[in-house]
Amino acid sequence: MCGIVGFLDKGGNRQAPVGQVLLNMLTALGRRGPDSAGVALYGDPGDGLLVLRVKLGQQGLAEVQGAQVTERVKDLASVVKVSLQGEYLCLVVDYQGDATRLESVIEAAGEDIEVVSMGRRLEVVKQVGSPENLELTYGISASVGTHGIGHTRMSTESRVDLSHSQPFWAHGLPDLAVVHNGHITNYHKLRRRYEQRGHHFYTENDSEIIGLYLAEQMTHGASFTAALQSSLRDFDGAFSYLAATADSLGFVKDPFGFKPLVVAETAAYVALATEEIALQTALGGDFPVWEPGVKQVQTWQVER
Amino acid sequence: MVRQVECTGKTTREINQEIRRLIGDGEQEIVVLRPQARHNLGVAVLQPVKLVFEGSVGYYCAGMADGPSVEIRGSAGWGVAEGMMSGTVIIEQNAGNSAAASIRGGTVVVRGSASARAGIAMKGGTLIIQGNCGYMTGFMMQKGTIIVCGDAGEALGDSMYEGRIFVGGSIAEFGNDAVIQELTPEDREFLTSTLTQYGITSARPFQKVVAGRRLWRFDKKEFATWREAL
Fold first, then answer.
1. Confidence at residue B221, expressed as pLDDT on a 0 to 100 scale
2. Cβ separation of A275 and B56 shorter than 8 Å?
3. Taking residues A241-248, what's their average pLDDT?
4. Under CATH, to which class is A48-120 assigned?
5. Helix or strand or coil: residue B149?
């Protein structure tokens, strides 16, 4: 099972109630995945600034760990804002350098410290539990932005913890995030290939490889749409997944139509969800809803 | 008199029990308000009542129906009218995967388009899709008729045993052992009368797709086809 959702305000309104819409959609799909819930929100933290959300480890006090990570970041970037939010350290920094370098400096601070998201627009908020609990802990409904994606998880093949929940930020490429419903059946084979090339995996969740794959394609010059297209050739299995960048949202449906996904598009927005119940609950109205066909890929861009 | 069932604040079971109770009371027309694309609404209705859903429905709506006349004023999720024995189910907009799966009788009309595997394992009845149909429509159908007024997706009629599929638009790809056959005068008559009954006037000439029957028996000379089909 698992439930995935996405929303994009086509007009590029940076104050669109993305957090509230995603929360309502996820709540409607909650029974599809009671293990964990999460959202990737594309807001407007400030011109050119980079937002980092860092999962702090279980080794010691959050305050102490947070301070240690912040000190490390200060060696590379000027820190504009620091806050502790639940299990996360949230940093807003002025940094123009290499994302991977910044990430590895942070993660060297402790064994289970992980940069959950990094981006000029992106913030990933996820945890174990229901969408309602995600709201109670982080108040995601207050978040505004242009677009976002979300996930409720029913784990079928890997453990249930914050790191294994979705969305997954594509480590290495700021702002790229993915939510996935299904199973990438050639995951182990692909993973071995990536590991031989030096890529690090944070989880044993097959969905993690989607972001890694897209990031590699896009780093080598593929457009967002082209990267999604080529994934159909390289992934086996039953899957519907959504991916988002700083200004785009897209979906991919597997070659057999094994996993559901419906789309509602109006002049103002596009909304995607595993089931229409999410669209009706969050956006209720008289919009046409359609289920994409097999091997279908489509992307939308926020107007600038 | 038309009786209304409000969905807001009720569980699916409560909604279905209320529909059942009204039918038991002898009501002839029931309107279900704000279905909000919830699953399993109006399943196993075995009486010839009129049941209207004022909005979209989720999975398996009107499944196992035997006799009712159902209208869905919105779209439908997976498996609409699955296993229907008799009656009519009309979906005003699009239908998700496996519309009219395994129906044995009755008629399902999708005014919009249907997604993958519409009419899978049909054992009778008629499925009319006014728009386009998706991948593997009519997969392993055994009896009955599918009419697609628009275009058909890939693997049309794959491994069908029997039955017939009429397509007004283009066919992206034939499934294993699905072949074109000439329309008989009875076919043309059936198409005209059936479509007219549901207010569909399609000017396009239909093609007819049936089983080539090569998969009925195993023939090792046709091993390649078998391997593909399985």
1. 74
2. no
3. 98
4. alpha beta
5. coil
What's residue B174's pLDDT?
98
> What pLDDT is attached to residue B203?
67
pLDDT band at B230 (very low <50, low <70, confident <90, very high): low
- Measure CA B82 to chain center: 8
Of B75, B135, B154, the CB nearest to A276: B75
Close Cβ partners of B193 (under 8 Å, ≥ 6 residues apart): none
- Residues A225 and B162: their CA atoms lie apart, in Å, by 41
Residue A225 burial (10 A CB sphere; 0-12, 13-18, 19+): middle
Q: What is the dotted CATH code of the domain comprising A3-44+124-301?
A: 3.60.20.10
Where along chain A do its domains lie? 3-44+124-301, 48-120
The residues near B49 (Cβ < 8 Å, ≥ 6 apart) are: B23, B27, B28, B29, B30, B67, B68, B69
**Residues found in chain B:** 230
- Residue A57, pLDDT > 90, answer no
Flag if B115 and A275 touch (Cβ within 8 Å).
Answer: no
Q: Do A260 and B117 touch (CB under 8 A)?
A: no
Cα A137–Cα A139–Cα A142 angle in degrees, nearest 5: 170
Query: How is A162-220 classified by DSSP, letter by letter?
Result: TTTSSPEE-TTSTT-EEEEEEEETTHHHHHHHHHHTT---S-S-TTHHHHHHHHHHHHT
